[in-house]
Amino acid sequence: MRVLAVLSEEPLPDPFAELPTAASQGNDVAGYNWRGFYTGGEVFDEDYAAMVEDLQALSDSDEWKEVAQQIGLVYSWLVRRRLQ
């Protein structure tokens, strides 16, 4: 099996650094395997901000970074709030 492209916006870190991205081959496409935390639509701004702050602290922790590396997870952090 040969990998034709990875769908990240930037090249992946080792051991995947040699794999070409779709963008590096002239294709304007990116895709991710989304995992996340979601809330209902009626969340107060203060509560939402507190949840984001807690999750950011966990994401920045050395323990999380070690686990992500152990399982081969190329991690990215994205926060979006959809307003209705």
Give the % helix: 25-40%
Radius of gyration: 16 Å
Shape, please? flat
Largest sheet: none
* Number of spatially distinct domains: 2
Measured between the Cα atoms of the first and last residue, the distance is 44 Å
Number of distinct beta strands: 0
Our estimate of the beta-strand percent is: under 5%
Output the number of helix runs.
Answer: 2
SSE series: HH
Q: Structural class, from secondary structure content?
A: mainly alpha
Mean pLDDT level: 86
Unreliable spans: none
Helix/strand layout:
Blueprint: H1 45-60, H2 62-70
What can you tell me about this protein's structure?
- The protein has 84 residues and is mostly helical.
- The protein has two domains: 1-31, no CATH class; 36-84, no CATH class.
- It is built from two helices and no strands.
Keywords:
84 residues; mainly alpha; 2 domains
